[in-house]
Amino acid sequence: MALTVVVSPNDCDIEWVSDVLWGLGVVAIEEIVDAAGIVRLRTSLGENRVDAEDALTELPDGVTWEFEEVDDRLVDAWRDHVEAFDVGERFTVIPAWRTLDGLGVATGRTKLVIEPGSTFGMGDHPTTRGCLCMMEKIPLADVSVLDVGCGSGILGIAALKMGSSTAHGIDINPASVRVSMENARANGVEANWSVSTESLSSVDDVFDVVVVNILAPVLIDLSAEISRTVGDGGRLILSGVLDGRYDHVLSHFVEFELIERVVIDGWATLCLKRHD
Predict the structure, then answer these.
(1) What per-residue confidence (pLDDT) applies to 77?
(2) What is the three-class DSSP state of 177?
(3) Distance CA 250, CA 29 (A)
(4) What is the C-alpha to C-alpha distance for residues 156 and 191, in angstroms, rounded to an integer?
(5) pLDDT band at 112 (very low <50, low <70, confident <90, very high)
(6) Which residues 6+ apart lie within 8 Å of 86 measured at CB?
(7) Is residue 65 exposed (0-12), middle (13-18) or buried (19+ Cβ within 10 Å)?
(8) Which residue has the higher pLDDT, 72 or 189?
(9) Dihedrals φ, ψ of 156, to 5°?
(10) Domain 123-274 CATH superfamily
(11) Distance from the Cα of residue 89 to its chain's centroid
């Protein structure tokens, strides 16, 4: 499923629309500008049309879009151009369809082998990279981790490869169950990874570390449920927030103190600690 969003710069900030698309987990966006300055943003959604429609209805009037069925071979053409990339001081993300031969991964780096499927990203969006960089800064050995909106499972898998005892992911997209479990297997951590499509309100356990990489309005809407899942003295990593606009988000997490902030390409990733 392909999506084209048509935006006039006079009606809406192009970067805002792009960020909404990235938030859906797309793996690439093509930007086409015509002579009149009208911008067309084209991307592939896999089977994620329902989530896309919900997100697009939040955009201002004047922004239009259309869905189109396309040949799967064309949808997957982007794979030919994706290479391994480093994140932070520790991680190297490797596309699952690339062999390790000749990649030149530095000794001592933690390899994350990721297959995004047709719906989820490779982990190169600034919010995901921010989460990975933040995870390097906190103790993760022998802790329990919850990844809210886990997508491909990259963050939970990274936590397990850093020594976490268990990681559980939830995502409303059913494809996440299959894709993230395949990725956990590819990284040798499937025994300690679990994933479901249950709602956050259905999660009864509390965790030492909770990671939430979703857009700010959703962080705010789910703030009470998110807070409930963090154990005493636990860490909460929030991303999907534009730098300089996170105070409003923090005001919904009064049980926590901000202890660390990472900014990548204008996106802030926040690490909070629950008050003892």
Answers:
(1) 61
(2) helix
(3) 30
(4) 13
(5) very high
(6) 92, 93, 106, 109
(7) middle
(8) 189
(9) -65, -40
(10) Vaccinia Virus protein VP39 (3.40.50.150)
(11) 19
What is the C-alpha separation between 44 and 120, in angstroms, rounded? 10
CA–CA separation, 184 and 115 (whole Å): 10
Q: What are phi and psi of 22, to 5 degrees?
A: -60, -35
Relative to beta strand 85-87, strand 91-95 is: antiparallel
Into which CATH architecture does domain 2-77 fall?
Answer: 2-Layer Sandwich (3.30)
Tokens representing 78?
């982007």
The 8 Å CB, 24+ separation contacts for 39-42 are 39/6, 39/7, 39/8, 39/9, 39/14, 40/4, 40/5, 40/6, 40/7, 41/4, 41/5, 41/7, 41/14, 41/17, 42/2, 42/3, 42/4
Q: Which amino acid is at 171?
A: D
The confidence band for 101, taking pLDDT boundaries of 50, 70 and 90, is low
Confidence check: pLDDT of 165 > 80: yes
What is the dihedral angle through the alpha carbons of 85, 87, 91, 96, rounded to the nearest 10 degrees?
A: -40
Domain residues of the chain, as ranges?
A: 2-77, 123-274
Q: What is the per-residue pLDDT across 201-259, written as a single tens digit (0 to 9) for each?
A: 999 999 999 999 988 888 999 999 999 999 999 999 999 888 888 999 999 999 999 99
- Whether the Cβ atoms of residue 270 and residue 245 lie closer than 8 Å to each other: no
> Of 245, 275, 276, 252, nearest to 261 (Cα)?
245
Residue 84's pLDDT is 87
The 10s digit of each residue's pLDDT in 18-66 is 778 777 767 667 778 887 788 888 887 766 676 777 777 877 777 888 8
Q: Confidence band (pLDDT; 50, 70, 90) for 193?
A: very high
CA gap 38, 20 in Å, rounded = 18
